[in-house]
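ARCHIVE CARD
Drawer: 12
Card no.: 0347
Subject: one protein chain, sequence and derived structure
Cross-reference: see card 0346
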Amino acid sequence: MEAGEDFGPWLARQLKLADMTQTELAQAVDVTRAAVSAWITGRAAPRPETIERIARALNTDLATVHTRTTDTQAGLPIGWYHRPGHADGGRELGNAAAFAFDADVGVLARETCQNSLDERLTANGQPVRVRYTLHELTGETLARFREAIQWDDLFPHYEAAATQEQKVGRVIDAGLRDMYEHDRLVLLRVDDYNAAGLTGDDYDDGRFAAVVRRQLDSHKSGSSAGGSYGLGKATLWATSRLGLVLMNSTLSEPHEGRTERRLIGRLDLPWRQVHGKPWAGPAWLGRPDPESPGATVARSWWADEEAVESLHLKRESGEPGTSFLIVGAHDVASLADDSPSPDGDEGEEVDSIQRMHRRLVRALGKNFWAAMTGGGDQLPLLEASVRTLRNGDVVLPEERVDPTVAQPSRTRALKAFLNGTTAERLSEAGQVAMARVPLKLPGHDGKHSTLGEHQAVLLVTEAEDDEERNRIVAMRGNRMTVRDAVVPEISSSTNPFQAVLLVGRAAGADVPYADEAEAFLRAAEPPEHNKWGQTEELTLVYSSSAHRRISTMIRDANRTVKELVVRPKAKPKAGGANLGKKLTVGAKRGKARPTAGNQPKLQNVDAEVLATGAWQVTGEIKIPSGGDAWRMTPVAKFEVRSGARPVLAWAELVAVNGCEVVDGALRFAPGAGTATFQGVTDPATHTVRTSLSGLVVELRAGEGEPRS
């Protein structure tokens, strides 16, 4: 027999769908019941002439029996199953999980794209492709779609729910009025490709049941997965004013011998009474399950091409993944978006979906720019695009989200890391500085033990003119932005910058304790996945103080950023080390010099004592117009009450920005307004113990004192 689902399981399911016993089939095809049993168990196969009789008995064509890639039409018809009201009189007036999120397409993009990233098929190394399609239906196109979803059967339930004086009822009422008064309905479809798809049984543990049947079930593929609460899928229903989502999945693993066009619909309504009967809330569109009581519970079905087309769920290829169709999509946040339509005033209806289109593009670029960035031998993890249609016609063409446009400087920083082209310091335009920031991972003993130290990666680069400035974003393995905050206490004179903190597998799969860092930070994320901090899970798995390890990492990251880009001000040092500064500029002997009015001046100095006993000095120099012609040398001296101050030799003198070190002197970049240097003194030249001394730093014209 030809390829397809094994004949035995296929035949057993057809008998259930047709409500036919093995004995009845045996009589219809003129064989013994034992023969039918042997077919079902796989111990024997029917002869060709018997297959023809089986097809007639099941009221189907011969090709369906041969290929076995779809069910026969002998089963119960596709329809809606509404969960009956609870026997104890309990009522749910809405899906509580949906209340965790706003009806906001930006939130929807964040949660759905994260879920697609979590389900990316990694074996081929290719990115997961996610496409958002806004599709407004009107007139006859809308009428045909309502017929396909069996609207006449649904309407009494909507009508009953809309009369209830609570939030869900008011949202449904608004959705119904909008559809009937304006004769329009907005569909928002989310397709992903190169993803796992809704695999598994309709009811048992698996991706399908986690999404379609259950609440708070997070069925994830790997340790770096973003989701952990099972709430993200609720954004699909929260974005629908009708509480209705249809699904078409192409599976990465066969179920019932098939992979393509597995369809199901789920409706989330509050408790209601229809025709005198109470209904609990959810409902499912599918084929009645013959194994359920009275064959009433709807399960997924393998649809034909015509059904997929009528439900606006046709996928572009047989690549694994899922299409989610949100029926009656709305975006409360876009109502506050007063930016003009990109194509001019074309009417309120079209403009509303244009605003949703733009908000989707912005949200994807803001949250997933890093996942869309590749470099070295790594492809991007994600590709995302948005398109907008009206009755099948293009309103806004497909727009692929470009991370270099959405976040140019951050993308440059990540590319440099992936390409291995980072530097230790920012000394030239366009450079990316990299440093390591430790994260001490707690043990699982509920105490203050340390499992190990993970080294996160910190990237810093200059910001573009039209970007947000002086911020640090943080992420882990799936490269979705989790934390986005301003670096505190930055001097206004600092060149604008952007910083990126890569933790867990984002810092590199081979970095020690990467997986442990993933688990730790995943437990520290709230349902919104927009920060790291104290959560109940973190307390239960680790300890009540475990969140302080994250605070320490963030504090160290901010401090390291400042070391790379900030021009610090002088401050007293603890331990008796009194820092002074003397802003003295002298002329280099024997050479003509520019006028005194354009001499560079040392205006800010910061210093600390290192473990070696050396002073580490960071200085900021103000360069007036024409001052870049000077060559200046910083000189470190011990502070003394009388007599000449002992000069300390530099063990190291490096340029930070706006200058370069040439033969022990600083040469300033043309047109630079400020410059920053850093020096470390040579302890061998210290005539006084460092902890008992003060320090003076002078700026001299010319070569100055020789370095050791």
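Annotation on reverse: The two ends are 87 Å apart (CA to CA). The CA atoms of residues 81 and 284 lie 5 Å apart.
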